[in-house]
Design a protein that fits this description.
Helix content: 10-25%
Strand content: 35-45%
Number of domains: 1
CATH architecture: Beta Barrel
Distance between the termini: 43 Å
Largest sheet: 8 strands, antiparallel, barrel
Strand order of the largest sheet: 1-3-4-5-6-7-8-9
Radius of gyration: 18 Å
CATH topology: Lipocalin
Structural class: mainly beta
CATH class: Mainly Beta
Number of helices: 3
Length: about 180
């Protein structure tokens, strides 16, 4: 897979580049800046098998802004609804499913084109142990497909996220409901 980056991705954490810097960076290819829809969220197990981490059709969106801010949201498609209808009155199993059925974080990011890495300076995350941490992930960009590997979990599993440039699919038709 090719690694291609542009001026905005190379300067996401700083001020606008000079004309010479922008021309040099633009020659490297397209930028990572924009909205990305989740294609896959898999786990690469120590035995080499690759399995869906959030079910067969996970939903997600990645936003990488030119000013260096980002947001990642990944959700399992099929999620257990709370029987009480109140997120403050769930059962232990409902809370467990809600926690394990998503991975979200936001903050600032930096791309290192020479190393092929993206570094997330995580402000807040759905997994509280990541709050205030910095994580660097190797990535590849091939056309409109971006993928990265998260550092291995304690059991040796490597989460892999695959994104496709563009907006996520439209929401299903029907009345919108908004939990409070």
């Amino acid at each position: 897979m090719a690694l291609l980056l542009g001026a905005a991705a190379l300067t996401a954490q700083g001020p606008a580049p000079s004309a010479a810097t922008a021309a040099t960076a633009a020659a490297a290819g397209p930028s990572l800046v924009g909205t990305w829809a989740l294609s896959a969220a898999d786990d690469l197990r120590p035995d080499g098998s690759r399995v869906p981490a959030y079910g067969p059709s996970p939903h997600g969106v990645l936003t990488l802004e030119a000013d260096g801010r980002y947001s990642v949201q990944i959700f399992r498609a099929e999620r257990v609804k709370f029987a009480s209808g109140d997120k403050r009155r769930g059962t232990p199993e409902e809370y467990k499913d809600a926690s394990l059925g998503m991975s979200c974080h936001f903050g600032r990011y930096i791309v290192d084109a020479a190393k092929g890495t993206i570094t997330f300076q995580i402000d807040r995350a759905s997994f509280p142990n990541w709050d205030g941490t910095t994580q660097t992930r190797p990535f590849t960009l091939a056309g409109d497909e971006l993928s990265w590997r998260v550092p291995a979990t304690p059991d040796g599993t490597i989460p892999i996220s695959v994104w496709r440039r563009g907006q996520p699919d439209a929401l299903p038709e029907g009345p919108a409901t908004r939990p409070r």
